[in-house]
Specification:
Helix content is 30%, strand content 29%. It is of the alpha/beta class and 341 residues long. The two termini are 16 Å apart.
Length: 341
Amino acid sequence: MINAVYRLIAPRLIDVAYKEIEVNKDSLILRPLYLSICKADQRYYQGMRSQSVLREKLPMAMIHECVAQVVCDKSGKFSVGDLVIPIPNIPTEKDDYVAENYLRSSHFMSSGYDGFLQDYIVMPADRIVPAPDGISLNVLAFTELISVSVHAITRFERFAARSRIETIGVWGDGNLGFITSLLLHYLYPAVKLCVFGTVHEKLSYFTFADEVYHVDDIGDIKVDHGFECVGGAGSRPAINQIIDCINPEGVISIMGVSENFVDINTRMMLEKGLCMFGSSRSGYADFKRTVDILKQYPEIAQYYESLVGDVVEVRKISDIHKAFELDIKRNFGKTILKWNK
């Protein structure tokens, strides 16, 4: 069986490659249904990574967020037609101390390895999670991003296990901030949730938060713990504002990606005895917990539908370009590809 793989070969240049599909007894063949564009995809598409990184990673099929349908299952764990969510992180070893998404030997699809922009995807059976019923496929398309927030919250629960948790602040009024804030709202309903951002219009989406603040006007607010969901050039002011606002012995979760080094106020970190940790990507356990949360709180998925922006039907390569160009102009929400190749 021949598969078509749509690879980025240079910034804004996509070509198709044809590969023979090889399936073993523990693998599945999936048909992508809906895919979601991530900021990491955009950095590759626009050539915003360094030339050395682009030379190393390309050519490569992009996209690591999708919901798919089972076409063939050699493992016997699923049925043809089942809706599933593929996990893009592929570990090659097991470590008793390091999670699969932090092992340097793991393969991450759409980061040096072909992602989901393919007519068919071959996945190991242990990298598949059944999709929950009754949730929009547009939302399920970005389950991976939701699982990244779930992963950070799970790690936060470990680091803050013996801490006071009365007020949590989330810095970031974009997609990651929205997703993380909503999860915290439902998982910690008795905790005061404060959201900090830079755009009043985007902050208006956070109707579930107890308080919203523009970062230039926060008064003397104090939080017990903080989540940084900003990234890029905004990382430095966001992290340092968290350090200023957080109570002693608080925990700071760093989630935003920055291409450059970030200066932080280490003196105040030491004086307050703060714990700061970083989180990246997610693994099987995080996907499983994400699906369980969506089942337990179906209204979360309803909130997430407000993140769905353009839905582009993809029949040819030019439609992929159209989706990425529309996504570039979007400062809030997710661009979805409806895969009809």
